[in-house]
User: Fold this.
Amino acid sequence: MTPNPPTSTYRLQLQPEFPFAAAERAVPYLAGLGVSHLHLSPVLEAVPGSTHGYDVTDHRSVRAELGGEEGLRALAATARAHGLGLVVDLVPNHMAVSPRHNHALRAVLREGPDSPYARWFDIDWRAGDGRMLLPVLPARLPEVRDRFRVSDGSLHLDGQEFPLRPGTEGMPLDELLDAQWYRLGWWRLARTELGYRRFFTVSELIGVRVEDPGVFAASHAKIVELVADGVIEGLRIDHPDGLADPQGYLEDLAEATGGRCWTVVEKILTGQETLPAAWPVAGTTGYDALRRLDGVFTDPVGADELADVYREFVGKAGDRGGRWEATERRAGYEVVTHDLASETAALTRIAGRICAADPALRDHAPWALRTAVRELLVRVPVYRPYRTGGEEVLTPEAARGAKAAFAVPEEAKAVDLVRDLALGALGDGPEHRAFRARFAQTSSALRAKSVEDTAFYRYTPLLSANEVGGDAGRPAVPVEEFHAYCLRIARDWPGTGTVLSTHDTKRSADVRAGIAVLSQCPEVWAELLAEVAGVPAPDAHVAWTAWQTAFGFGAPDADRLGPAILKSVREAGLRTSWTEPDAEYERAVAEFAAAGPGRIPLRAASEAAFALEPHIRAHALGAVLAQLTMPGVPELYQNTEREYRALVDPDNRAPFAVGEDDDRTALVRAALRLRRAHPEAFGPGGTYVPLAAEGPTAAHCLAFARSGRAITAVTRLSLRLAQAGGWQDTELVLPEGRWADALDGVREFTGGPATEVKLAELFAERPVALLTRVE
Assistant:
């Protein structure tokens, strides 16, 4: 653990429009806000013009478009002068498939499997015709053949550049193409014929083998240098589930950095899954906290009623039946058989080679191995199995379910073989290790694509629940469960991250708050839908999704809502998709978005809808204060210190800009400065004590104390509270002592067993309260 762990972080999205120099100019403002560290998006060299930096091209240098290493070091110095450190987003899993800019990949394409860089990438040279397929052509090869040209030792096509194998430059074009270590192909071939590991289903990003010691050392030398020099104090590890051995990688990283870094991992935990205890990290980036924060402000009864309204409204236009579990399972089958066909084919090839080399395992048909792989993958209930605990994921029950896909019991034995290979029970040879790693890597890709990028867009009763790490089938989290989570985090992972909005959230926290309030009034939502029924929509599913998105967004904005709605129907894949677009349907969606959700101010469309604004505000402020004071290290995404309405990327990745303060900004400053002044109360060693209100509406108060130093109390489900008659005589017993209101600096309250505080008084000024002990 770094000797100076963060008390809070602030995420900045670097890009050519917002380079290091711009971040440096923002330092005084951010220091005044109260954060302890700036969290920067990836800083290493990336594809020119990239607005995100996850398409790394060169690990050896800091990105020139952002100001280079000189700019980064200048930013660090300015930050340090203001009492701030830097946390950097690190991308170990993949690089860009950009032969012109990716020097390692360029060497492999030129020199083939004998290149010293061939070990950098998971390339199966035995797949296909023994060459690496590059699915980069806009059409079939014969259709673009006449556009190729050769010059300066490279092959050029429409701005793309590919290195040539030595000695082939003077060949006729057809011979030249056949003589390369790569095969240029139509981009659609990636789905079924790809021979290299990629990031999810993105063929433009090739997986990196950081499990190889030489590759790790070469790809991490610059980052390790920056850590050693004190430029970087923390690391966010992007997508560790894509790695062959996440634990091994993190152990290597901890050793290389000498334990000088606060390190968190972008690990998505499913349900009650916990982070592997052996990982040498401070915790996750915080999606597990996000789910609890969103859930504790969602009404379970109303959410169920809303799901019934959804099924009646959408009917056949949505996913069949409109049930979450069925939608999730169908999406899993579609993705594993279609989008990840190359990945399942790779696993089948590896399993086939293992069987061919072992007399005891022979005669499993390729189709049986492929079926077993698919059936087991769709039954992994979390993102992936790990080095330990795999038996808890790939259970005997999962195997029995997988075997049901086979008509002949003898052929179903392929399931046992695949399960044993995935668990490492049949040997530890290179092919065995490769299968185990690739199965786990494919599992994480399947989960991400089928749940986050497909099912969450098909099953949409309450869009606020359809967030990374969320549970669309169980959107509400009881107060007791929230407290249990916080107690466990305070005990086991006090340095973990917590978030409400990120660069990857489909909707910012304020948009989700606007949507979540509908769980308290499904009847109001049904009435609003009836009022806008006159705006013709392509189908009921897109109508529901678009109008609910617009309601959460709060203001009509066709330029921002339109692209988000179009993305949602492509991700859902019910009528159109990214790879098989239906132009006529998409035109209808765009016209509907512009005429309806992009034009009509839905939250002001009726008195009932307008009356929800105070309750949306109560949710938003309550979630912010709870996040900033619960166990863990809170992160603010850029601009979220004030009201921030943003939709799925790229909408939420606009450059940072200082805005006008609002009532939330004062709340954020008070909480962050309190954390910075008393790190011992909120960090490792600090305590978390749930506080229970007493009275007729006690369930509407979420309260806890931190180390005898601060008390957080927030209103939850305020609309239901108002319908119940308000706080009435509900009271909260504060811990012993005198407590001052940190938000107004005037009010004081006395704690102790005989000095209950009326919640009507505590929340007289605002729906949240932050109290600090008076010394």
Notes: The chain has 28 helices and 27 strands. The chain has a mean pLDDT of 96. The longest helix spans residues 430-458.
